[in-house]
Amino acid sequence: MKTVIMLLICFFFAGCESSPPTSYNLTLSGDYSGVFYLTYQAGTDSGMVSESNAFFTFSDTGWYSCKGSTGILPRGGGFFNVKNDSLHLMDLYLRTALFDGSLVLNGAFYISHSGGTLILTQEDKNNSRFRRIELTLQ
């Protein structure tokens, strides 16, 4: 009888097992183009938005590269991975010393979709900036 009760308890807990939320089963491989928006002084009345064309390439092996048409999105590249609803970028691109390193895309970006558009957003609290990247697979 104890064995039956123990088995029932095990089945109950096995049936109640939860897994972390995964909003997207996302495969990013391919070439993307779109628009990069950078909001300076985000969250204030004096916020200012700049934009640039954006071009990204994501590989099956976890590498990415990016470039923009203006200086607000510098050429970059490195490793990426997707965890739940976040895209994590680790930029490894070499740059000159005369460069604003705070413009480099690093860290976690929240992933969302709107139609066929992949949207990446990141709040940079240290520099009072908000980044939004809208990309379409080419």
Question: What are the salient characteristics of this protein?
Answer:
138 residues, Lipocalin, 8-stranded antiparallel β-barrel, 8 strands
Describe the structure.
It is a single chain. This protein has one helix at residues 2-15, and strands spanning 30-40, 48-58, 63-68, 76-83, 86-91, 107-114, 117-124, 129-137. Mean pLDDT is 82; it is low at 4-25. The longest helix has 14 residues, at 2-15. It contains one helix and eight strands; from the N terminus they run αββββββββ. It starts with a helix and ends with a strand. The protein is mainly beta. 10% of the residues lie in helices and 49% in strands.
Helix content: 10-25%
CATH architecture classification name: Beta Barrel
Average pLDDT rating: 82
Q: What structural class is derived from the secondary structure elements?
A: mainly beta
* Number of helical regions: 1
Low-confidence stretches: 4-25
Radius of gyration: 20 Å
Give the end-to-end Cα distance, rounded to a whole number of Å.
63 Å
How is this structure best summarized?
With about 140 residues, the chain is mainly beta. It is about 10% helix and about 50% strand.
Task: Give the helices and strands, then pairings.
Elements: H1 2-15, E1 30-40, E2 48-58, E3 63-68, E4 76-83, E5 86-91, E6 107-114, E7 117-124, E8 129-137
Antiparallel strand pairs: 1-2, 1-8, 2-3, 3-4, 4-5, 5-6, 6-7, 7-8
